[in-house]
């Protein structure tokens, strides 16, 4: 499925590919940080080397906005959370964070968008009235969508998810909990609190559903970490 319409925009840090409509901004995106003003940094914020126009020049980390010498800020890394088209300059601390996030964008985000089959019920109804839905993340990453043959379920706004709980279904050979499903507590469009239970389709291959649940946990953690800042 095609994503939202996007445009190229030039910022002080490089070219960014951003949605034409602000309403399509991914909840996984972060704003660009303000840069530490040139006048306020006399030395590198990592190695403390004094800046000198000829020998040691200033560079800003595109992720944290702090000021470093070239040696401490020379890595060019992909930064999909700020929607840069090309890899951009990172300090050492931020390099590690962005490298870890690359896996989320390359793997987990795709798994969420590819979707999976789940038996879904609202917690106040109970498993007897569960319906089968194909559940996936919308192209702009903002909603969980539920596609059913007969039943309907309202989309869940990703930013309105309050808790995720893994529903175990036994343990594997190594004693790790096997995810049988997931319970999602969220605020609906009227502001009411709902809980839905999504169980992995037990009739078929359980692996895609379990991978989807693991990716959902990663997504929730990323959003939570961003909120906590
Ligand atoms: Zn330095
Ligand atoms: Zn940084």
Automatic annotation (TrEMBL):
<dbReference type="InterPro" id="IPR038632">
    <property type="entry name" value="ZFYVE21_C_sf"/>
</dbReference>
<dbReference type="GO" id="GO:0008270">
    <property type="term" value="F:zinc ion binding"/>
</dbReference>
<keyword id="KW-0863">Zinc-finger</keyword>
<dbReference type="InterPro" id="IPR017455">
    <property type="entry name" value="Znf_FYVE-rel"/>
</dbReference>
<dbReference type="InterPro" id="IPR032031">
    <property type="entry name" value="ZFYVE21_C"/>
</dbReference>
<dbReference type="InterPro" id="IPR011011">
    <property type="entry name" value="Znf_FYVE_PHD"/>
</dbReference>
<protein>
    <recommendedName>
        <fullName>FYVE-type domain-containing protein</fullName>
    </recommendedName>
</protein>
<dbReference type="InterPro" id="IPR052113">
    <property type="entry name" value="FYVE-type_Zinc_Finger"/>
</dbReference>
<dbReference type="InterPro" id="IPR013083">
    <property type="entry name" value="Znf_RING/FYVE/PHD"/>
</dbReference>
<dbReference type="Pfam" id="PF01363">
    <property type="entry name" value="FYVE"/>
</dbReference>
<feature type="domain" description="FYVE-type">
    <location>
        <begin position="38"/>
        <end position="99"/>
    </location>
</feature>
<dbReference type="InterPro" id="IPR000306">
    <property type="entry name" value="Znf_FYVE"/>
</dbReference>
<keyword id="KW-0862">Zinc</keyword>
<dbReference type="Pfam" id="PF16696">
    <property type="entry name" value="ZFYVE21_C"/>
</dbReference>
<keyword id="KW-0479">Metal-binding</keyword>
